[in-house]
From TrEMBL:
UniProt topology in membrane: Multi-pass membrane protein
Protein name as annotated: Protein-export membrane protein SecF
Biological classification of the source: Bacteria, Bacillati, Actinomycetota, Actinomycetes, Mycobacteriales
Ranges where the Protein export membrane protein SecD/SecF C-terminal domain occurs: 141-325
Native source species: Corynebacterium crudilactis
Domain of life: Bacteria
Cell location: Cell membrane
Amino acid sequence: MTESRKPEGTQAAKKSGWFNSLYTGDGGINFIAKTKLWYWITGILLIISILFIAIRGFSLSIDFQGGTKMSMPAADYSTEQVEETFIEATGITPEIVQIVGSGDARTLEIHSERLGDQDIEKARLAIYEEFQPLNSAGKPSPDAIGNSTVSESWGSTITKRMVLALVAFLVVAAIYIAFRLEREMAIAAMAALFVDGIVIAGIYAVIGLEVSPATVIGLLTVLTFSIYDTVVVFDKVRENTAGFEGSRRRTYAEQANLAVNQTFMRSISTTIISALPIIALMVVAVWMMGVGTLKDLALIQLIGVIEGTFSSVFLATPLLVSLKNRLSKTKAHTAEVMALREGKTTLLDASPQPSTDGAAVVNIESDTETSAAPAKRTVSKPVSEDPHSSGTWRPGRS
């Protein structure tokens, strides 16, 4: 009875599984084949973002537009009742009344246009008489109600500096990418970066999230993360496509798709590792401690890390392939690869060919196509001059 064994290669392939196929390219995800889908998704996101930015605009903090912010321990107060008290005392409707934080760190905040000292004092006394907030010693006191005011001129200065910081960042990023990557890669990377910025801004416009200086700092951080992730993917693309014209095994698009597969798990892992401390920051600093500035910083980073990964994997490389496929040399190479696969052209045979002087000549260019038909190989049974020179000799065997 013979025991059948499975080939070791089959067992190794089963053990390696789907994750190994992402690196080798065997059975990986065909990202490039779904380029139109990624373009449609990106286009829809851009249209929605631009529309909401144009129609609704942004909810700017007092640091940008100036104004007054009053805050006190939230306790069990109703935001609606506090808002009514504020309006009765000042005659001004606040822009927003909200509660941030959780537990004992919950804080009630009132944002309004810039108030004079008299209006601030009226609002403070009216809120104290109505709600009796407790100070740090646990006693009712008007001092439990804090306030901060930013002038319009200061807000205008901060806004100009924000715009200057964004422009300077984009210029530096464009210069770095132009020298670091190929021309088409630089164009694709900058296009993906602009998409990141517009989509993130659109999310803030759609949801109505407040934009503060911390938000701008977080935006610059996540745009840097996006560039870094894109450069890593493009480095692998450049490595895979180096001298691609000399091979007929894969097209440029297939080599680029292989690079995305090889870096896909790394991008996902980097995103998860980056998101975990951000989520921890939101839970501890925002939900438990009620630090509003950290909320703005953590939220923009969480949104940006997710968007940056999407653009690096699903947008930047498809854009690169689209640009490369417009080049004549890439078109010609792709046509040659397709013709070879369809059998319209053949590869030179690598078998020894007799020469005029009797020596064997081997053609080693097995990956170069030729219009000549490949040489036929003849396999003959080996002839042994000595019958006892091989095998096992038995009596009576000639």
